[in-house]
Amino acid sequence: MDTRLRQSLLYDFYGELLNDHQKEVFSAAIFDDMSYSELAEEYGVSRQAAFDLVRRINKKLERYEESLGLLNRFTVARDKMDELTQSVESLKDMLRTSDIDSKISRSLSKQLDDISGEAKEVFDSF
Fold it and tell me: What is the pLDDT of residues 48-83, one digit of tens each?
């Protein structure tokens, strides 16, 4: 996974566990793509201090992930959801090309759509 994407997701899961200053600085660094020099100027610190703060926040978010594993569980769930979606689409393709009655085929296809929709709702609520 791309480093920026991982940082962003870690912030989404654990950002509320940071204090307001940490949230503000990390958000500026990751989401606003501010350089360490820009952060230093914005917050009245040295470039090294800005670098150290962002690095410490990253480590803190990684420790939360090591302890709680929310990002990992989310990634596993997303991968399983992708597999389910592919399986449903594959079954629907098989129904379209099969020799079974078109009424039955449409009914089965509708049921597969319902299953896929319900699974997506469960995943989205995560």
Answer: 999 999 999 999 999 999 999 999 999 998 898 888
DSSP 126: -
Q: Is 121 exposed, middle or buried (0-12, 13-18, 19+ CB in 10 A)?
A: exposed
Query: What single letter denotes the amino acid at residue 8?
Result: S
Residue that has been written with the tokens 């989310």 in this structure: 74
Helices (H), the chain: 3-14, 20-30, 36-43, 47-68, 70-97, 102-125
Report the distance separating Cα 75 and Cα 65, nearest Å: 12
pLDDT value for 56: 98
Rounded to a whole number of angstroms, the distance between the first and last alpha carbons of the chain is 20
Q: For residue 1, what is the enclosing H or E element?
A: none
Percent of the chain with pLDDT over 70: 99
3-state secondary structure of 23: helix
